[in-house]
Specification:
With 353 residues, the protein is of the alpha/beta class. The protein is built from 15 helices and eleven strands. The strands form two sheets. A seven-stranded parallel β-sheet has the order 1-2-3-4-5-6-7. A four-stranded mixed β-sheet has the order 9-8-10-11. Bound molecules: iron/sulfur cluster.
């Protein structure tokens, strides 16, 4: 699904979550820029329909914008829907800003998808992050949206103060029970100027290392695959991090999603290769072109590590292989079936130095 994003950084938000750089960025984006949004949409959306995409209002708490601003933005977007140039409209917001009247307003104005910043389903973690809502309010909001026929996305932030690997998996499993349509997973990073930065500088918060974040996100992604739960984003986009003035600490990496997918492939390949350890005969594994980058790993980390175990290992691109499949001689393997054979210890072996 193509998304045409309009960013409204922190518009509408009355909160101060400890990880959010709201005060600094609101100084930069204080005006409601309807004209700029109108021209951005006109530039982004092709005039020839029918369009399958969605216009998305991201970055603030949409449902806490003044009703007149919400209405103006949604009417602008609906114009594109009515002309058949996009299929729907999505907004992002907080769970406690989705009361019945707010959801009804969205429905009446053509919103089809709502992304909720859930962050965690552990009340201690939500409290420590200063979120100002509990896990139950996220579950209630999901229920209200579902009753109104909305598509639902959830954002999770493993690694907040008070979080742990277990908490991240608990929150993920609670999210599965709530049955959203898709997830975004953003491991917590420390932005300059936030309360989290102050906690970190005073030694009261330890961000996850890149290794830790990749490991836990690989476990989370594996669970999502098992549940057929789409994950539409893993880690911040580089542009988000740069627009916020860089990252002070924490597991930000411009190719975070690839690190996580490569971590999964490493585990899968270990289960395929471990019976061959130290074999020097050539061992050819055919892979699809689309998977090659993830299989080799960022800066070829996977291949170097795997070749130290199986020196004769060679990957060959095979254009007749479907994505996420491997072939060895006449045998075909799928990533998920290999992952099911991977013991947890192997997946947690650190490969990123
Ligand atoms: S609710 Fe969202 S926009 Fe508001 S302070 Fe928290 S993270 Fe930032």
């Amino acid at each position: 699904m193509q998304v045409f994003p309009i960013f409204l950084p922190h518009h509408g938000c009355p909160h101060r979550c400890c990880f959010c750089d709201q005060r600094r960025t609101t100084q930069q984006f204080c005006a409601f820029e309807h004209d700029r949004i109108e021209s951005d949409l006109a530039d982004m959306i092709p005039e020839e329909g029918p369009g399958e995409g969605e216009i998305a209002f991201y970055g603030g708490t949409f449902t806490l914008l003044p009703p007149g601003e919400q209405k103006a933005l949604l009417e602008l977007a609906l114009g594109y829907v009515n002309r058949g140039l996009v299929r729907g409209v999505r907004v992002s917001t907080r769970p406690d800003a989705l009361e019945d009247c707010q959801v009804e307003f969205l429905v009446r104005h053509g919103v089809t998808t709502v992304e909720i910043g859930a962050q965690s389903f552990d009340d201690r973690v939500l409290n420590a992050a200063g979120r100002g809502h509990d896990a139950a309010s996220t579950l209630d909001a999901i229920e209200r949206l579902r009753k109104n026929g909305m598509k639902i996305g959830l954002q999770l932030m493993p690694g907040l103060p008070g979080s742990s690997f277990d908490e991240a998996l608990f929150s993920l499993r609670t999210a599965f029970e709530a049955r959203p349509d898709f997830l975004r997973i953003y491991p917590t990073v420390v932005f300059p100027g936030t309360e989290l930065e102050s906690l970190w500088r005073r030694g009261l918060y330890r961000p996850w290392s890149l290794n830790e974040a990749v490991d836990i996100c690989a476990d989370m992604l594996k669970e999502c695959r098992r549940q057929s739960m789409p994950v539409i984003r893993l880690g911040l986009q580089q542009v988000d991090a740069l627009e916020r003035g860089g990252v002070a600490a924490g597991p930000h990496h411009p190719a975070f999603g690839q690190l996580v997918r490569s971590r999964l492939w490493y585990g899968a390949l270990m289960s395929l290769l471990s019976p061959l350890q130290n074999g020097t005969k050539p061992f050819r594994v055919r892979v699809s072109r689309a998977d090659l980058g993830d299989i080799l790993g960022h800066r070829r980390t996977n291949i170097e590590k795997l070749r130290s175990l199986v020196p004769g290992l060679v990957f060959e691109i095979s254009d007749d292989l479907r994505r996420e499949h491997l072939a060895v001689e006449n045998r075909l393997f799928h990533l998920d079936s290999l992952l099911q054979q991977t013991p947890r210890e192997e997946r947690h072996e650190s490969i990123f130095g």
